Amino acid sequence: MIRWNVSKSNEAIDREQAIAKLRKLTRYCKWGTICTIVALALALLAVIAIELLFILPSLSQGFCLQSVELTAGEGPILALVGANEQTPLMLVAHDGHTAIGSGMMACLALAIALSAYRFFSAIEKAGRPFDLECIRILRQIGHLFLIGGAAVKLFGAIVTGLILSGFGGSFTDALGGQHLDLSMLFAGLIFSLIASIFRYGYILQKQDDELL
Hints:
Low-confidence stretches: none
Structural class: mainly alpha
Distance between the termini: 16 Å
Radius of gyration: 25 Å
Number of strands: 3
Shape: elongated
Order of helices and strands: HEEEHHH
């Protein structure tokens, strides 16, 4: 009986130490995620500021769709060119990727980073990873990766194609790039699997807590 009590006491100490280490690690991860979110937000704001200050004023005086080569050796891009030919609004890059699709992917990356911040915050608050809120956030991250891998670039290309058609271009000019991102699809499946594993861990943890 004494041995059993000692075992239970040691188990409680080990659990408290594990929780303290987990909270410390998630705190570091949370601050790293905050830095990532700030960097992504500043990059998006910088792009928006450049377009508002330099590109859109040039287009407000009239514009047309042209094939432009900004950097020698990279090939031409399709862009809306206004009064200042040095500041075109790029629509389709030389590799077939669209500016709209790239912008949507950047917003998706910001959404994933925000979800990761919520995930680490939930673990730090609860002191345990096997929590229903953590499982829900993991599933959400998996869905975001799947959406990014299967639909975001394709949707951006379709919207860009419609814009090109409206300015006398060809709709198919926006569909030349790679629209499926297999790495993001694989990451989405992995996160969905991890969410299922966490749900199983939640069940075992709940049963263990009821026995103590």
